[in-house]
Amino acid sequence: MRASLIQIAVDEGESVNFRRSRVSSLVCEVAERERPDLVVLPELWTTGAFAYESFADEAEPLEGPTYEAMAKAARDAGVWLHAGSIPERAASEDATEGSADDLYNTSLVFSPEGELAASYRKIHRFGFDKGEAVLMGAGSELVTVRMPDTVIGLATCYDLRFPEMFRGLVDAGAEMFVVPAGWPARRREHWTLLARARAVEDQVYVLACGTGGTHAGVPQAGHSIVVDPWGAVLAEAGDGEEVLTVELDPAKVAATREQFPALKDRLLGLDAPRR
Fold this sequence. Notes:
alpha/beta
Protein backbone atom coordinates (compact mmCIF):
# COMPACT_ATOMS: atom_id res chain seq x y z
CA MET A 1 0.00 0.00 0.00
CA ARG A 2 1.29 3.43 -0.93
CA ALA A 3 0.27 6.69 0.76
CA SER A 4 0.99 10.34 -0.01
CA LEU A 5 0.59 13.09 2.60
CA ILE A 6 0.24 16.59 1.12
CA GLN A 7 1.43 19.18 3.63
CA ILE A 8 -0.33 22.34 2.46
CA ALA A 9 1.28 25.70 3.22
CA VAL A 10 -1.60 28.02 4.03
CA ASP A 11 -0.94 31.36 2.34
CA GLU A 12 -3.10 34.02 3.96
CA GLY A 13 -3.07 35.93 0.66
CA GLU A 14 -4.99 33.15 -1.09
CA SER A 15 -8.76 33.10 -1.19
CA VAL A 16 -10.52 29.96 -0.04
CA ASN A 17 -11.85 29.38 -3.55
CA PHE A 18 -8.37 29.69 -5.05
CA ARG A 19 -6.85 27.33 -2.48
CA ARG A 20 -9.64 24.82 -3.01
CA SER A 21 -8.90 24.80 -6.75
CA ARG A 22 -5.14 24.65 -6.18
CA VAL A 23 -5.37 21.72 -3.77
CA SER A 24 -7.72 19.82 -6.09
CA SER A 25 -5.15 20.11 -8.86
CA LEU A 26 -2.37 19.14 -6.47
CA VAL A 27 -4.19 15.92 -5.46
CA CYS A 28 -4.38 14.90 -9.11
CA GLU A 29 -0.75 15.87 -9.78
CA VAL A 30 0.49 13.88 -6.79
CA ALA A 31 -1.63 10.89 -7.76
CA GLU A 32 -0.22 10.89 -11.29
CA ARG A 33 3.37 11.31 -10.13
CA GLU A 34 3.47 9.13 -6.99
CA ARG A 35 0.79 6.53 -7.77
CA PRO A 36 -0.53 6.29 -4.19
CA ASP A 37 -3.52 4.28 -3.02
CA LEU A 38 -4.30 6.90 -0.34
CA VAL A 39 -3.82 10.68 -0.31
CA VAL A 40 -4.12 12.67 2.93
CA LEU A 41 -4.68 16.42 3.37
CA PRO A 42 -4.38 18.51 6.59
CA GLU A 43 -6.95 19.92 9.00
CA LEU A 44 -8.96 23.02 8.03
CA TRP A 45 -6.71 23.78 5.07
CA THR A 46 -9.41 25.91 3.46
CA THR A 47 -9.43 28.48 6.26
CA GLY A 48 -6.48 27.73 8.55
CA ALA A 49 -6.98 26.01 11.90
CA PHE A 50 -6.29 29.20 13.89
CA ALA A 51 -8.33 31.56 11.70
CA TYR A 52 -11.17 31.52 14.19
CA GLU A 53 -12.85 34.64 12.83
CA SER A 54 -13.24 32.92 9.45
CA PHE A 55 -14.96 29.77 10.69
CA ALA A 56 -18.53 31.06 10.55
CA ASP A 57 -18.06 32.98 7.30
CA GLU A 58 -16.39 30.06 5.50
CA ALA A 59 -18.47 27.25 7.02
CA GLU A 60 -20.23 25.08 4.48
CA PRO A 61 -22.71 22.21 4.54
CA LEU A 62 -21.28 18.73 4.50
CA GLU A 63 -21.97 18.41 0.77
CA GLY A 64 -20.75 21.92 0.00
CA PRO A 65 -18.09 23.24 -2.40
CA THR A 66 -15.14 21.50 -0.72
CA TYR A 67 -17.04 18.20 -0.70
CA GLU A 68 -17.78 18.59 -4.41
CA ALA A 69 -14.20 19.55 -5.28
CA MET A 70 -12.64 16.73 -3.25
CA ALA A 71 -15.09 14.11 -4.52
CA LYS A 72 -14.15 15.08 -8.06
CA ALA A 73 -10.42 15.07 -7.21
CA ALA A 74 -10.66 11.57 -5.70
CA ARG A 75 -12.58 10.32 -8.73
CA ASP A 76 -10.28 11.98 -11.27
CA ALA A 77 -7.17 10.75 -9.45
CA GLY A 78 -8.57 7.28 -8.74
CA VAL A 79 -7.41 7.33 -5.09
CA TRP A 80 -8.77 7.04 -1.61
CA LEU A 81 -8.71 10.64 -0.40
CA HIS A 82 -8.75 11.81 3.19
CA ALA A 83 -9.63 15.40 2.34
CA GLY A 84 -8.58 16.85 5.69
CA SER A 85 -11.32 18.75 7.47
CA ILE A 86 -13.71 21.62 6.83
CA PRO A 87 -15.69 23.98 9.04
CA GLU A 88 -19.06 22.26 8.61
CA ARG A 89 -22.33 24.09 9.15
CA ALA A 90 -24.71 21.43 10.37
CA ALA A 91 -28.13 20.88 8.87
CA SER A 92 -30.86 22.51 10.94
CA GLU A 93 -32.14 19.19 12.29
CA ASP A 94 -28.66 18.42 13.67
CA ALA A 95 -28.03 21.69 15.48
CA THR A 96 -29.48 24.34 17.73
CA GLU A 97 -29.47 27.58 15.78
CA GLY A 98 -27.01 30.12 17.14
CA SER A 99 -25.20 27.59 19.35
CA ALA A 100 -21.69 26.19 19.00
CA ASP A 101 -23.31 22.97 17.81
CA ASP A 102 -24.14 24.75 14.56
CA LEU A 103 -20.48 24.34 13.48
CA TYR A 104 -18.21 21.29 13.48
CA ASN A 105 -14.65 20.53 12.46
CA THR A 106 -15.48 17.69 10.07
CA SER A 107 -13.20 15.33 8.15
CA LEU A 108 -14.22 13.83 4.82
CA VAL A 109 -12.96 10.57 3.30
CA PHE A 110 -13.73 9.66 -0.32
CA SER A 111 -13.41 6.40 -2.23
CA PRO A 112 -11.65 6.23 -5.61
CA GLU A 113 -15.11 6.48 -7.17
CA GLY A 114 -15.59 9.87 -5.54
CA GLU A 115 -18.18 8.61 -3.08
CA LEU A 116 -18.16 9.70 0.57
CA ALA A 117 -16.79 6.75 2.54
CA ALA A 118 -16.97 8.46 5.94
CA SER A 119 -17.18 11.77 7.76
CA TYR A 120 -15.84 12.42 11.25
CA ARG A 121 -16.67 15.35 13.53
CA LYS A 122 -13.67 16.19 15.69
CA ILE A 123 -14.31 15.12 19.28
CA HIS A 124 -11.65 17.07 21.19
CA ARG A 125 -11.72 20.78 20.34
CA PHE A 126 -8.69 22.91 21.06
CA GLY A 127 -8.71 26.30 22.76
CA PHE A 128 -9.82 25.67 26.37
CA ASP A 129 -12.14 28.67 26.83
CA LYS A 130 -11.73 30.29 23.41
CA GLY A 131 -11.33 29.58 19.71
CA GLU A 132 -12.44 26.21 18.37
CA ALA A 133 -13.48 25.02 21.84
CA VAL A 134 -16.28 27.57 22.06
CA LEU A 135 -17.01 28.17 18.38
CA MET A 136 -17.56 24.56 17.32
CA GLY A 137 -19.54 21.65 18.64
CA ALA A 138 -17.94 18.36 19.70
CA GLY A 139 -18.35 15.18 17.74
CA SER A 140 -19.43 12.10 19.66
CA GLU A 141 -18.66 9.07 17.47
CA LEU A 142 -15.49 7.12 16.72
CA VAL A 143 -15.19 6.52 12.99
CA THR A 144 -13.27 3.90 11.03
CA VAL A 145 -13.03 3.32 7.28
CA ARG A 146 -12.47 -0.08 5.72
CA MET A 147 -10.12 0.07 2.75
CA PRO A 148 -9.22 -2.97 0.62
CA ASP A 149 -6.09 -3.84 2.64
CA THR A 150 -6.58 -2.15 6.01
CA VAL A 151 -8.92 -0.30 8.37
CA ILE A 152 -8.13 3.31 9.15
CA GLY A 153 -9.23 5.13 12.29
CA LEU A 154 -10.01 8.83 11.98
CA ALA A 155 -8.79 11.50 14.38
CA THR A 156 -7.96 15.19 14.08
CA CYS A 157 -5.13 17.28 15.56
CA TYR A 158 -5.85 17.86 19.29
CA ASP A 159 -7.39 14.35 19.45
CA LEU A 160 -3.79 13.11 19.36
CA ARG A 161 -3.43 14.03 23.06
CA PHE A 162 -6.17 11.62 24.20
CA PRO A 163 -4.90 8.02 24.09
CA GLU A 164 -8.19 6.52 25.24
CA MET A 165 -9.76 7.61 21.95
CA PHE A 166 -7.17 5.67 19.97
CA ARG A 167 -7.65 2.55 22.09
CA GLY A 168 -11.31 2.81 21.16
CA LEU A 169 -10.37 2.95 17.48
CA VAL A 170 -8.16 -0.12 17.91
CA ASP A 171 -11.06 -1.94 19.53
CA ALA A 172 -13.13 -0.96 16.48
CA GLY A 173 -10.58 -2.69 14.24
CA ALA A 174 -8.26 0.17 13.23
CA GLU A 175 -4.82 -0.82 11.95
CA MET A 176 -3.81 2.66 10.86
CA PHE A 177 -4.57 6.12 12.26
CA VAL A 178 -4.90 9.06 9.89
CA VAL A 179 -4.55 12.38 11.71
CA PRO A 180 -4.88 15.66 9.79
CA ALA A 181 -3.78 18.68 11.82
CA GLY A 182 -3.02 22.37 12.00
CA TRP A 183 -0.43 22.06 14.77
CA PRO A 184 1.44 25.18 15.95
CA ALA A 185 5.21 25.39 15.53
CA ARG A 186 5.77 26.23 19.20
CA ARG A 187 4.64 22.71 20.19
CA ARG A 188 6.20 20.78 17.32
CA GLU A 189 8.07 18.37 19.60
CA HIS A 190 4.76 17.31 21.16
CA TRP A 191 3.42 16.57 17.67
CA THR A 192 6.14 14.12 16.73
CA LEU A 193 6.31 12.60 20.22
CA LEU A 194 2.56 11.96 20.39
CA ALA A 195 2.40 10.53 16.86
CA ARG A 196 5.12 8.01 17.76
CA ALA A 197 3.50 7.23 21.12
CA ARG A 198 0.13 6.44 19.52
CA ALA A 199 1.88 4.13 17.03
CA VAL A 200 3.85 2.25 19.70
CA GLU A 201 1.10 1.83 22.26
CA ASP A 202 -1.53 0.73 19.73
CA GLN A 203 0.81 -1.09 17.32
CA VAL A 204 -0.50 0.67 14.24
CA TYR A 205 0.72 2.91 11.46
CA VAL A 206 0.21 6.62 12.12
CA LEU A 207 -0.12 9.01 9.19
CA ALA A 208 -0.14 12.53 10.64
CA CYS A 209 -0.51 15.31 8.07
CA GLY A 210 0.02 18.91 9.17
CA THR A 211 0.15 22.33 7.56
CA GLY A 212 2.92 24.77 6.80
CA GLY A 213 2.67 28.52 6.53
CA THR A 214 0.77 30.56 9.10
CA HIS A 215 -2.83 30.55 10.31
CA ALA A 216 -3.99 33.98 11.43
CA GLY A 217 -0.41 34.82 12.35
CA VAL A 218 0.28 31.50 14.10
CA PRO A 219 3.31 29.72 12.53
CA GLN A 220 2.56 26.10 11.75
CA ALA A 221 4.72 23.14 12.71
CA GLY A 222 4.57 21.29 9.41
CA HIS A 223 6.64 18.12 9.97
CA SER A 224 4.00 15.72 8.71
CA ILE A 225 5.11 12.28 9.81
CA VAL A 226 4.55 8.61 9.07
CA VAL A 227 5.31 6.12 11.86
CA ASP A 228 5.25 2.32 11.69
CA PRO A 229 3.81 -0.05 14.35
CA TRP A 230 7.19 -0.29 16.10
CA GLY A 231 7.45 3.50 16.40
CA ALA A 232 10.02 3.92 13.63
CA VAL A 233 9.69 7.14 11.64
CA LEU A 234 9.37 6.20 7.98
CA ALA A 235 9.22 9.76 6.66
CA GLU A 236 9.02 13.29 8.06
CA ALA A 237 8.51 16.60 6.26
CA GLY A 238 10.04 19.99 6.92
CA ASP A 239 7.99 23.09 7.68
CA GLY A 240 6.96 24.21 4.16
CA GLU A 241 4.64 22.81 1.51
CA GLU A 242 5.78 19.27 0.81
CA VAL A 243 4.61 15.81 -0.24
CA LEU A 244 5.58 12.67 1.67
CA THR A 245 5.09 9.36 -0.09
CA VAL A 246 5.67 6.10 1.74
CA GLU A 247 5.25 2.38 1.18
CA LEU A 248 3.23 0.68 3.92
CA ASP A 249 2.81 -3.01 4.62
CA PRO A 250 -0.60 -3.59 6.25
CA ALA A 251 0.50 -7.10 7.24
CA LYS A 252 3.14 -5.56 9.52
CA VAL A 253 0.43 -4.57 12.01
CA ALA A 254 -0.65 -8.15 12.65
CA ALA A 255 2.97 -9.31 12.65
CA THR A 256 3.95 -6.71 15.24
CA ARG A 257 1.02 -7.61 17.47
CA GLU A 258 1.97 -11.28 17.23
CA GLN A 259 5.68 -10.72 17.92
CA PHE A 260 5.00 -8.40 20.87
CA PRO A 261 1.43 -9.11 22.04
CA ALA A 262 1.13 -6.27 24.54
CA LEU A 263 -2.47 -5.47 23.58
CA LYS A 264 -3.51 -8.92 24.82
CA ASP A 265 -2.32 -7.95 28.32
CA ARG A 266 -4.72 -5.02 28.69
CA LEU A 267 -6.56 -5.22 32.01
CA LEU A 268 -8.26 -1.85 32.08
CA GLY A 269 -11.04 -0.85 29.72
CA LEU A 270 -14.77 -0.87 29.27
CA ASP A 271 -14.99 -4.49 30.37
CA ALA A 272 -12.53 -4.22 33.27
CA PRO A 273 -13.67 -5.69 36.59
CA ARG A 274 -14.81 -3.09 39.13
CA ARG A 275 -14.80 -3.11 42.90
